[in-house]
Specification:
alpha/beta, Aspartate Aminotransferase, domain 1, Aspartate Aminotransferase, domain 2, five-stranded mixed β-sheet, 13 strands, globular, disordered N terminus
Amino acid sequence: MTVTRVPDSAGVAVGDGPDLRHHGDAEVRDDGEKLTDLAVNVRTGTPPVWLRERIGTALEGLAAYPDGRAARAAVARLHGVPVERVLLTAGAAEAFVLLARALRVRRPVVVHPQFTEPEAALEDAGHVVRRVLLREEDGFRLDPSLVPEDADLVVVGNPTNPTSVLHPAGVLAALARPGRVLVVDEAFMDAVPGEREALAGRTDVPGLVVLRSLTKTWGLAGLRIGYVVAAPEIVAELERAQPLWPVSSPALVAALGCVSDRGVAEAGAAALAVAGDREHLVGRLRELAGFGVSVVGPAEGPFLLVRVPGAAAVRGALREVGIAVRRGDTFPGLGEDWIRVAVRDRATSDTLVSELGRILAP
C-alpha cells in the first residue's frame, strides 16, 4: 500500500490520471437499451411493484413542498439513533459534495480503489487530496496504520466499490481519531446478508460519518435518495450547506417504503439471493483461470472486480455481442487489465462467461 499526493484540479492537465467522473452508466448510454447491462450496480427487476405504487401516490401532492420529517424519523428508527443524527440527501453522491464544501478540513485522504466521486467532489471544492492505494497482493484490504496520522478527513467504502471487499468494522473504527472525520461509504451494505460489519448506528466512534444509498438495491438511481448518519453537529453543518427541499416528495415516499419492515425484509432476502448468484459467477469465472482471468475475493458486494488480460479489447468484444461491463482503469490504483462486473441471474452469468471464454481463446 502506498500513499500518493494528488494536486488540486487547477494543477492537473486535461487527461492526466484516471477520469474520476467516469461511472458505470457511461457504458450503457445511447445504445444501452440494446445491451445486457453488467456495468451498473443497480439490482435488476426493481423497483418492485409495491414500491412503484407507493411512489405513484406522491404524484397527487406535487403542488406541496416536500416534508422530510417522517422519512428522516423512519431512517433514525431503523438505525436506532436520534433523528438529529440523520440527514436525507439526493442520493449518496450529494453527501460527498456536502462533505467537501461544508466541513473545514485541510488534509483529506481517500482510500482507493473506490468510488471516485468523493475525491472528485473534494477537488472541485479546492482541496488537495492524498490517496492511500490498496494493493492487489494484499487483497485490497486496509491496514489502518498506513493512513497518514495527520489526515483530518478519511474516506473509505465498505463494501468497497469496485473491489467488493468488506472491511471489518473494527478495522475501520480504528481509523477514528480526535479531530478527524471518518467517512464510511456504505452504499452497498444492504446487499450484504445481515449487514455484517456495518457502522451505521454506531455512536461510539468519534467523527464517524456513514453514507447510505437507497438507489442500488431498490433500483431508484433516477429518483436520487440516500442519507447520512453522523453526530448532530456534523449533520447540522451539512444541512446548512444543502439547498431548501433537497429531496423530492416521491423520493421521500420511496425512503419510507425502503426502510419499512417490508422493505428491510425484502432487502435481506435480496441480499441472500445475490450472495448465491455471486458465488455462482465466481465459480464460473474461475474456469477461465487458464486464460489469465482472476477474481478479487472473497467478494461481498453485488459486483466483482475481475482481472482480464487486454481488458479494453475484451470490453469492446463483449459489447459487440451485446454485453456491457464497467472498465476498471478509471479507478485510481487499478490498471488497464481490470473490469467490474455486476452480479446478475445465473443464466446471464453463464452467458457472460461463455462469451468471455470464446473471446479469450487462442
